[in-house]
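Anyone opening a protein record will find just a pair of labelled lines. A complete record is shown below as an example.
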Amino acid sequence: SPFSDWLDTNYSPDAKQAHQIQAYLNAPRNELAVLDAEVDAAERALNALRTKQARLRRHIAAHEALVHPIRRIPDELLQEIFQHCLPTRHMPTLSNRSAPILLTRVSRPWRALAFGTPTLWTSLHIPIPRGRSEADHIALTEARHAGVAWWFSRTGHIPLSISLYWPPSL
């Protein structure tokens, strides 16, 4: 730059020098505009490639899932594995964050297998809900009743183990 001696200083150019600097900047500004356009084009191309890459990864993953070894485990063995997924320190609850309900959320085949395995559903811990009001308590109890009835419908004719917890009054 013909103005390199003034760069990074406190020098203040006069009007003529300012005009010369502005004229000098035309070429770098044009070059920058061209580079900006090239970068934008490259970013669009990169985004298109990333989209294509993600689509291809999903395609591959979906097909790899078809041949995953878990799909070849016999149902009887899966049922045994499911039994070992049940909580050991307490009875199962109506929670979708633990077995057996969690197992029904993995895939349709697992859902069908878990629902068709009555021994997964033979024990249940039932906390009796407390509402802030009588109406809340009734609504919570009715919802809990529906969940318990649904759970028991899975057991077939196998004996049940139930634990109840009634919290102290508020």
Residues 74-165 form one domain. The chain has a mean pLDDT of 93. The chain has two domains: 12-67, 74-165.
